[in-house]
Design brief:
By secondary structure, the protein is α+β, with helices and mostly antiparallel strands. Helix content is 33%, strand content 27%. α1 links the parallel β1 and β2.
Length: 303
């Protein structure tokens, strides 16, 4: 197959592992920056055209691909998803779809959708622009977590120890026009969470992430560590259900074990491979390519 990965940083571990695994399976893979794509709508067939502007040289028309793998960061969500939709309109399979990607990238929207499916999440609030910060936190316990609606790798997540701190942070973000959600801090998690790597109907790998001392965020990019963990069947099914609720074929589902039971913290549409491959010993990149092969074959038969 001829595959395309949409990513701004082709040297990243995840990109290189996926490219390597695809080539080992006999496929060809290009890695292109979605922000260098020129999308065209025409009145004649084919109605959806995509040109690419390389760093050097003239733009050229992108060839036909068998599948597209989106791996772009949050800063490129809007453009990247527009490119994904163009490929979908051309009948090309995307691992994940534009609609699923957009839902997962909005933390509040994703939690709404997950909750609609009866999946437990931490107590979370979203306030309208006219709600006073003091009012927004009125019935929330201290400390509380403040999250920007878009963000990854722990960026845009702040722990407010006291109500006065929370109000000051919310006032600052409101002045800057940055929408946020408020979430209960699950103290018993103690800076730990569980990352489940879901592909299709299966959790192919998992790990427990542990934040460094004094850090409540367990992200690898915040200096966290990880170890192997064995999940119960119920925990696996909750992770799979959360991914399915958002329409994701590939997802990193973050869980926390609380006094109230298992909670879904958030779902990542483009989860990193480095930490989970090294911790679990699972060749996650290969699992993704194998799933992609089956998905493309199924789509061809369906059409």
């Amino acid at each position: 197959m001829k595959l395309l990965m949409l990513c701004r940083e082709p040297r990243l571990y995840s990109c290189q592992r996926l490219k390597q695994s695809a080539e080992q399976r006999g496929h060809k893979m290009e890695i292109l920056d979605p922000n260098r794509c020129l999308l065209k709508l025409t009145e004649n067939l084919p109605r959806f055209e995509i040109d690419y502007q390389p760093q050097e040289g003239e733009p050229y028309r992108l060839p036909a691909y068998d599948a597209v793998l989106p791996r772009f960061g949050t800063a490129s969500t809007k453009t990247g998803c527009a490119v994904l939709r163009h490929f979908q309109a051309k009948g090309i399979y995307c691992l994940n779809s534009e609609q699923a990607f957009l839902a997962a990238r909005d933390k509040w929207r994703s939690l709404q959708i997950i909750s609609e499916q009866g999946i437990a999440v931490p107590h979370t609030q979203l306030s309208g622009s006219e709600v006073l910060p003091k009012t927004a936190i009125r019935k929330m316990a201290e400390p509380l977590v403040i999250k920007t609606l878009n963000g990854s790798q722990g960026i845009g997540v702040v722990l407010a120890e006291q109500a006065s701190n929370a109000v000051a942070i919310l006032e600052l973000l409101k002045e800057a026009g940055v929408p946020v959600l408020l979430q209960d801090f699950v103290e018993e998690a103690r800076g730990k969470d569980i990352r489940c790597f879901v592909i299709g109907d299966k959790v192919v790998a998992s790990m427990q992430r542990i934040g460094p001392e004094g850090e409540f965020r367990a992200n690898f990019h915040r200096g966290g560590s990880a170890n192997k963990i064995t999940l119960s069947e119920d925990e696996k099914q909750i992770a799979i259900k959360a991914a399915k609720a958002l329409g994701l074929d590939v997802a990193g589902v973050d869980l926390i074990r609380s006094k109230q039971g298992l909670l879904v913290l958030e779902v990542n549409a483009s989860p990193g491979l480095e930490m989970i491959e090294k911790t679990s010993g699972v060749n996650v990149a290969l699992e993704m390519i194998l799933f992609l092969e089956k998905a493309v074959l199924w789509q061809r038969k369906a059409n």
